[in-house]
Amino acid sequence: MRILSLIKNILEKEERFLITSHIRPDGDSIGTQLALGIMLHKMGKKVTILNEDTVPKCYSFLPHSDWIKSSLNNGNQFDAAIILDCSEWERLGKIAPIAQTADVIINIDHHADSHGLGKYNYIDPSAAAVAEQAYHLLKHMKQPLTYELALCLYTGILTDTGSFKHGNTTVTSHHIVSEFLKGGVKPDFVYRMIHERNSFPSMLLQGMLLSSLQLSNDGHVAWTSITKEMLKKVGYTVEFEPESVLSMMRSIEGIDVALLFRDLGEDKIKVNFRSKSEVNVCQIAQKFNGGGHKQAAGCVITGNLEMVQEMVLQNIMEMLNYY
């Protein structure tokens, strides 16, 4: 693939790199950032990994997770910026203007609606995760697949496929992951680190969400909401990974779409979408300036909780009627 050769030339030629990804980073963005950062560091390059948000606790086990910063000293200059898992400048938040100062911009993304943010765009919607694309880049550059690289990239594929249960999981995904297992990655260890280190307050919150679960009249849509009142009870700083609740809602017989609403304050509501059928929830998220993938997407909508719920549910029901 020609784009891999072009990116390889840049990575070998340039010296100062910025690696960044979208706001509220997930396992795919964080794992891939660290993998490319580790690779470039071993090549003798100067690497800065920068996100608007800090690393969630569930990914702190990854090697060199402390390399990821959320602020930058003045005066930093970059020969190249590598933008991962992101199809719009706005999704970088406050990091966007910093990335735009780089002499060269490389965009590696697997979102179907991505048109590229730079001169060098490696866009592959068939990839289950941007970690898969990074794996192909590493192989093209003939870089050895160390345990650290395998662990970071495995985490990326694991999380973006919903532990291999989403429809984006492919033969290629499993083939790549088999290489990581040969490299020493232990699936049980990674699963424990990501999913079995919940705090007591987060478990209390999960119980509240399940107890307030609602179903549509036809039984095809399930939703629940994280309200200000809930956060007041468990603490506003509680770290909460939505995937467990969404997976449980998605597992209900007859459910096609699961939704989690979260009141962020200041009339901002975050919405997580999951589906387990042909329903493309990314199309709904895009209507509200969000994005993602066919079976997993998200967005942030301005408005109060009740208003946002009504708008989203109306769009979901219209889509289900179409199907």
List the topology elements.
Layout: H1 2-13, E1 16-21, H2 27-42, E2 46-50, E3 68-69, E4 80-84, H3 96-99, E5 104-109, E6 120-123, H4 130-140, H5 147-160, H6 171-182, H7 187-195, H8 200-211, E7 214-215, E8 221-226, H9 228-234, H10 243-250, E9 257-265, E10 268-275, H11 281-287, E11 291-292, E12 296-302, H12 305-322
Parallel strand pairs: 1-2, 1-4, 2-3, 4-5, 5-6, 8-9
Antiparallel strand pairs: 7-8, 9-10, 10-12, 11-12
Helix pairs in contact: 2-4, 2-5, 4-5, 5-6
Provide a concise account of the structure shown.
The chain has 323 residues and is of the alpha/beta class. It has 12 helices and 12 strands.
Written description of the protein model:
The protein has 323 residues and is an alpha/beta fold. It has two domains: 2-195, inorganic pyrophosphatase (n-terminal core); 200-322, Diaminopimelate Epimerase, Chain A, domain 1. 40% of the residues lie in helices and 19% in strands. It contains twelve helices and twelve strands. It has helices at 2-13, 27-42, 96-99, 130-140, 147-160, 171-182, 187-195, 200-211, 228-234, 243-250, 281-287, 305-322, and strands spanning 16-21, 46-50, 68-69, 80-84, 104-109, 120-123, 214-215, 221-226, 257-265, 268-275, 291-292, 296-302. It has a six-stranded parallel sheet with strand order 3-2-1-4-5-6, with helices on one face. Strands 7-8-9-10-12-11 form a six-stranded mixed sheet, with helices on both faces. Strand 9 and strand 10 form a beta hairpin. Helix 2 (27-42) runs parallel beside helix 4 (130-140). 42% of the residues are buried.
